[in-house]
Amino acid sequence: MSLYAKELEIAQLAVQRAAILTKRVFHEKAKGTVSKDDKSPVTIGDFGAQALIIAALKHNFPEDEIVAEEEAAQLQEDANLRSTIWDLVKGTSLSDASAEAVLGGAIKSEDDMLTFIDYGNSKGGAKGRIWAIDPIDGTKGFLRGGQYAVCLALMVDGDVKVGVLGCPNLPIDDAAPLSGSMESGQTDEGKGCLFSGVLGQGATSRPLTTGALASSQKISMKAIADIAAASFCESVEAGHSSHGDQAEIAKKLGITNPSVRMDSQAKYASIARGAGDIYLRLPVSATYQEKIWDHAAGDLIVREAGGAVTDIHGKRLDFSIGRTLANNKGVVAAPAGGHAQVLAVVQEVLGNK
Ligand SMILES: Nc1ncnc2c1ncn2[C@@H]1O[C@H](COP(=O)(O)O)[C@@H](O)[C@H]1OP(=O)(O)O
Ligand SMILES: [Mg+2]
Ligand SMILES: [Mg+2]
Ligand SMILES: [Mg+2]
């Protein structure tokens, strides 16, 4: 058995199960949205997916630590919200009985659900096995009917070893071109992709299913022959990554393709399979610290697909110092052969500010 084979299987099945829940919420009008202290939205889908993933991890790897985005505090004060989430969680299982059994089956009670959610409170760090979970990455995209991702990664001694991204609204077809409008229609037809990477073992994609894992194929980034023909992925939210700086960088590189805007780590997945070429996250605020769960899986999947990922200073993303990427600013992800050229222009443009 190859290194991390069990961790990979559990992570993929856990993401698949959580995505069944998020898809149900995605198609409902009422998404149980509440506002967090930082004013960002969180939904019943985020809480439910986090509970299901952590239950699967605790069943299989009880000693491991977990860094997850959400916490149960808000649910302690709101019995209605709590019971809506519990209804969702207890009604969600994989359609394949043996796969469901591998994850440990259903959560037993509403209280257990809250306990699982709060197991995600690890401080992170440079020692031991730590999972990073973003149950719904791109919650604003999820609410808007656009792209979002269910994200899970395993770090060992501060280094990401396994990364899994479930992207329910990306086309199954790795060769499907990035569409200028990544908004999702009403049906799930032709959509739903599960991306994985294991350090030193490459990156894959497979259709996201509701039961056992589908068969996978290797993915790789497109080599950049002519940078002027490249296409960019960027955030939809101008508050997450500067659209103005991005446009200036594109211009200097001679890129005329309009950049494709989509939410979440679906951007990392899209460039990893060659559907796009370059992903830049250009700091808007001097104080915002990126969170490890927003990058751990995507960073590994892109690097395993033949890419290079650094921050705007050219440093590798450092997942070893806690819940945030406090040592890094922004993200520059590109095919390994073109990364230096892109980084140089990023620094030229940002250096002038
Ligand atoms: N001010 C901010 N700057 C950068 N990223 C942010 C900011 N606020 C929230 N985020 C996080 O950015 C990610 C989505 O950004 P994008 O889709 O633009 O790449 C999400 O993880 C979102 O959290 P969340 O997981 O709560 O959606
Ligand atoms: Mg959030
Ligand atoms: Mg996120
Ligand atoms: Mg999130």
TrEMBL record:
Q: Where is the signal peptide?
A: none
Q: Does the keyword Magnesium apply?
A: yes
Keyword set for this entry? Hydrolase, Magnesium, Metal-binding
Chain residues that bind Mg(2+): E69, D134, I136, D137, D294
Q: EC annotation?
A: 3.1.3.7
Its required cofactor(s), as named, are: Mg(2+)
Q: Catalyzes what? A: adenosine 2',5'-bisphosphate + H2O = AMP + phosphate; adenosine 3',5'-bisphosphate + H2O = AMP + phosphate; 3'-phosphoadenylyl sulfate + H2O = adenosine 5'-phosphosulfate + phosphate
* Enzyme class per UniProt: hydrolase
Q: Which domain of life is it from?
A: Eukaryota
**GO biological-process terms attached to the record:** inositol phosphate metabolic process; phosphatidylinositol phosphate biosynthetic process; sulfate assimilation; tRNA decay
| PROSITE patterns documented for this protein | IMP_1, IMP_2
Q: Fetch the SUPFAM superfamilies from UniProt.
A: Carbohydrate phosphatase
Does the keyword Nucleotidyltransferase belong to this entry?
no
Please provide, alphabetically and separated by semicolons, the GO molecular function terms listed in this UniProt record: 3'(2'),5'-bisphosphate nucleotidase activity; metal ion binding
Q: Which family does it belong to?
A: Belongs to the inositol monophosphatase superfamily.
Q: What does this protein do?
A: Converts adenosine 3'-phosphate 5'-phosphosulfate (PAPS) to adenosine 5'-phosphosulfate (APS) and 3'(2')-phosphoadenosine 5'-phosphate (PAP) to AMP.
This protein is called 3'(2'),5'-bisphosphate nucleotidase
